[in-house]
Amino acid sequence: MKTSVYMRPEKPMFVTVQRRTCPTLPQVPEIAEPLVIDKASECHVTPPDVARRMVDYLGPAGDYATLEPSAGTGALVSALLASGHSKGEITAVERHHKLAAKVATLGVPVIQECFFD
After folding, report:
1. Closest to 68 in 3D by CA, of 103, 96, 97, 41
2. CATH architecture label of 38-117
3. Fewest Cβ atoms nearer than 10 Å: which of 3, 49, 105, 111?
């Protein structure tokens, strides 16, 4: 093997590395107790940014009822409440007992049955 293959012409073989300093670290948000979702619930979690976009499509909060037929973790319900919808306008349906209890903590009525029933 040729030694010229291992040469770096016009470039140093060693470079000094400067140590970076970070004066302040970003604050880590407080994480609540995680919600463990088993596959029997068939829950597909909606990301918060997608939930906000879906609520924006509804238009401004008005005097009308909103049904969340498969509330899951409550992402859409949370986005509705954040956009100004009142808790009395929202009805959530969730058949899985742990997920229904999680959505009930948001203060909206939850019907714990299968939506299709």
Report:
1. 103
2. 3-Layer(aba) Sandwich (3.40)
3. 3
